[in-house]
Amino acid sequence: MADKKNPFANLEEKFKETQKKPKKEKVPIDYKKYTKSFLVIFALFILLVIAFANIYVVKEGEFKVIRQFGEIKDIKESPGLHMKIPFVQSVTTVPKYQMNYKLSEAEINTKDKRRIIIDNYAVWRVVNAKEMITSAGTLVNAGSRMEEFIYSVVRSELGQLNYNEIINDENSSRGSLNDQITTHVNELLKKDNYGIEVVDVRIKRTDLPEENEQSVYNEMISERQSIAQKFLSTGDADKRRIEAETDRQVREMLATAKKEAAIITAEGDAEAAKIYNQSFSKDPEFYSLYRTLESYKKTIGEDTMIIIPSDSPYASILSGSLE
């Protein structure tokens, strides 16, 4: 009955029991242990960061230059992952692919003493990164040195040609000229161990300075007119020679034909006379009649009127009273 009157009696008993149990002692925290673990984790993290920071990738079409205390230690060019020594080595990239180089415009004197402005470009690449760095230091310096060589060779090659030969692809063989320039520049670069190679040198444009552009054009027009007149004169001379030769051949052919015709006519007349003689000997009267008819053919036309005696041989034949 008491339980029914006090519904919290059970809770009070449980609370009293828990109060009677002995209390656990508090264990002190070992800060040294946690500090050591933290330092280990932090050290591992730092090592990972350093490791990842010193991993480098060599891509296709590039050199990786590894320097140690400023000196070139190694050069990697095969694609893949590599690692450098932290704080000791450094890595720089040098392109291995082909690059375009726009050269500065330059004035050059041709063989015929004309000044022209040349605008050209080069396609080049690094073939030996160590030689390039040793000789030039940087890619920019290597390009500048290459430009000096190209200018020197272009000036030398074009100085041996006339202006018309340079601007006329047919006469100057521009493709061959470009190849010669490329070959000579590579010889100079290889001789000085620059570690770079010129793939191609192309002349894009050749212009005249403004101050003498018009005079050169007038001179070119005059020269073309002179050449045209020379061709016309040569053509006229050839025409007269061909006509004279043709006339001579025609005269020779006509003379030969007349000679052959005379021979054939003579042979025909002789053969006809022979036949006439044979016919006369066989039938004199018929031969006389034939000759009379032949004379009619030659003397009497379609509208010819003749008056002859009735006893004339002509009259006897025409009247049909031939005996």
Descriptive report:
58% of the residues lie in helices and 19% in strands. It has 323 residues and is an alpha+beta fold. The strands form three sheets. Strands 6, 7, 8 and 9 form a four-stranded antiparallel beta sheet that branches. It has a three-stranded antiparallel beta sheet with strand order 3-2-5, with no helix packed on it. The longest helix is centred in the C-terminal third of the chain and has 70 residues, at 213-282. The chain is elongated, with a radius of gyration of 59 Å. It starts with a helix and ends with a helix. The model has no long low-confidence stretch (mean pLDDT 80).
Entry summary:
The protein is α+β, with helices and mostly antiparallel strands.
